[in-house]
Every structure is written in structure tokens, then in C-alpha cells.
Task: inverse folding
């Protein structure tokens, strides 16, 4: 915070009044100030970067919050709180078993709570509503082994192609190869326990857009006609999917 702004803040706290930008009238305020920092303010005071009088004014009742690594005993409660938040947003959330919590507890969490939140959100993306084990935490959540997205895509498309073309031999001929039909997905759960439907549909859309662009040698207008989309809609989808 610049020293000039520190002076204004101190004056507002002392006088309990402020002025609007461009105004000249004092406005009374009634507030309770809560400050948070991970910086060494006393060091900044010695270096002349922070006003001592402001520090003493705001440092009425200091609360020292230990890092996550220093309160691992709270980790399970925090994770469950974050999962409930995601569930409230309509997301599918996984369940961590005890071995997963043990692995999380062994980690030193250099990124503190923000890193834990990233891990929880990563778990929701990768595992949906499945149960997460200690092995999953080791290999997929703590940056030790990130799943190869291309391998995952290949596996999904291989499985989809098996569903799409199975029992379709009578419709095949040399000039008209069979195409996937929505009804083929009726058999999906005979082979698999679940599917990330949003992710799968996005990947289908991405492949079809790339195929249309390639078919038309990069001509966006013609590609949009193939896809029966407005040109502007196709361009927006390309930006969203990072398709060049």
C-alpha cells in the first residue's frame, strides 16, 4: 500500500469520516476494520515502507493463524467444507477415504489453503462423484503424476467407437461408412460405470470443429456452413476451445 494511501486510511480511521472522489463534503462512517497479511509489517516499518502510527492503530487485537502444515488436524474438516461448497454450486463431488486423508496429511502444503482448494477442485474434475484413495492422491492430486489428457481422450473415443459401430454391420458399405448415432449411447452403462457427459460433449464438439476446418482448408465460413453454425458462433467456440 503506498504511503500516501496509508495516510488517507489513517485519517479516515481517526476522524471516522471520508470524502468522495471529487467531493469536498465530509461523510461520517461507522465501520469495523479487519486486516490480513502474510508480510512482516514490523520489518516494513523499519524500512520506511509502512507507517508505524497506522500499524499501531489497526493492530488492536492480532490473531495469528497458523499455516495449514501446522494444523493438519483440521485438514479433513476443511476438505469437507470445500466439498460442500462445490456441491452447493451443483458440482459432482468425490469422497475422500481415510487413506486419502492420510496422504493429504503427509504433504507439507507450501501453497497453504489456496493449494488445498486447488487439490479439492482438481479432485472434483478428475473423479466426479467417485471415491478417492491414497493412491489417487499420490498419483493424480499432488502434482506427482498428472493424467495424460490425450491418453484419456483416446480411451474415451475408442470406447465410443465400439458402442457406435457395434451391431451396425448391415448399414455399412464401401461408400457410406457408419456414423455414430445418439441411440448407441443407450448401451454405454453396460460397459462403464459412469461418464463425464459435459466433458465428453465438449470433446465431440472440438473434434467436429477441427474436422470441419480441416475439410475446408481453414476456411471458417465454409466450416461454419458444414456445422450449420453462424460464423461468429463458430469463432467464439474456437476461442473457447483454443482452436487456432
Result:
Amino acid at each position: 500500500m503506498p504511503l500516501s494511501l496509508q495516510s488517507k486510511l489513517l485519517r479516515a480511521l481517526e476522524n471516522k469520516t471520508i470524502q468522495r472522489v471529487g467531493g469536498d463534503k465530509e461523510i461520517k462512517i461507522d465501520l469495523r476494520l479487519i486486516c490480513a497479511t502474510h508480510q512482516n509489517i514490523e520489518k516494513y516499518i523499519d524500512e520506511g515502507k509502512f507507517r508505524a502510527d497506522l500499524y499501531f492503530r489497526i493492530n488492536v487485537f492480532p490473531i495469528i493463524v497458523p499455516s495449514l502444515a501446522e494444523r493438519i488436524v483440521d485438514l479433513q474438516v476443511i476438505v469437507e467444507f470445500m466439498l460442500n461448497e462445490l456441491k452447493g454450486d451443483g458440482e459432482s463431488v468425490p469422497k475422500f477415504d481415510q487413506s486419502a486423508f492420510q496422504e493429504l496429511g503427509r504433504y507439507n502444503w507450501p501453497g497453504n489453503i489456496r493449494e488445498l482448494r486447488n487439490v479439492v477442485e482438481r479432485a472434483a474434475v478428475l473423479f466426479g462423484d467417485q471415491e478417492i484413495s491414497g493412491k489417487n492422491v499420490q498419483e493424480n492430486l499432488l502434482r506427482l503424476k498428472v493424467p495424460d489428457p490425450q491418453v484419456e481422450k483416446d480411451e474415451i473415443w475408442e470406447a465410443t467407437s465400439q458402442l457406435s459401430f457395434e451391431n451396425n454391420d448391415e448399414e455399412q458399405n464401401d461408400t457410406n461408412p457408419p456414423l455414430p448415432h445418439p441411440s448407441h449411447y443407450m448401451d454405454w452403462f453396460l460397459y462403464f460405470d459412469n461418464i463425464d457427459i459435459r466433458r465428453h460433449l465438449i470433446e465431440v464438439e472440438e473434434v467436429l470443429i477441427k474436422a470441419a476446418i480441416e475439410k475446408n482448408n481453414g476456411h471458417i465460413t465454409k466450416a461454419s456452413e458444414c456445422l450449420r453454425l453462424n460464423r461468429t458462433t463458430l469463432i467464439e467456440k474456437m476461442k473457447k476451445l483454443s482452436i487456432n
Q: What stands out?
A: The chain is about 55% helix and 5% strand. The first strand starts at residue 17 and ends at 18. Strands lie at 17-18, 27-28, 95-96, 131-132. Residues 10 and 57 are 8 Å apart (CA to CA).
